[in-house]
Design a protein that fits this description.
about 25% strand; rod-shaped; single chain; 2 helices; alpha+beta; 5-stranded antiparallel β-sheet
Length: about 110
């Protein structure tokens, strides 16, 4: 029974000698996972957010938009934080610009017309 602890100590001893190399080999897979995650998930999402913010900032009178609640309408007036949207003939609502999810083509026709 006394040979069992000695055997364990002898097997563990050679691994303790490669400190820096062992540390790098332990960190390398995690670093590779982070780089792949960044390239496939984080970077494209940041690009989409920047494009969306640019589209919201460029909204002008006459643009067709869709809000987060699914309301579609034509912009009639734009201020710094809000936009006035005509959702039906003679029906205008004021919305906060951050609730706009999509800016459609200027003279887009509804799909069912």
């Amino acid at each position: 029974m006394s040979s069992s602890p000695n055997l364990m100590m002898m097997q563990a001893a050679p691994g303790a000698g490669g400190g820096t190399a062992g540390l790098l080999m332990g960190i390398a897979p995690w670093l590779l996972i982070f780089v792949i995650f960044y390239l496939l998930m984080i970077r494209p999402q940041q690009k989409r957010v920047k494009e969306h913010q640019a589209a919201i900032a460029a909204i002008k009178k006459g643009d067709e938009i869709v809000t987060g609640g699914g309301i579609r309408g034509r912009v009639t007036k734009v201020s710094e934080d809000e936009a006035e949207v005509e959702i039906a003939q003679g029906v205008k609502v004021r919305i906060v610009k951050t609730t706009i999810t999509q800016v459609l083509a200027r003279n887009a026709k509804p799909a069912n017309d």
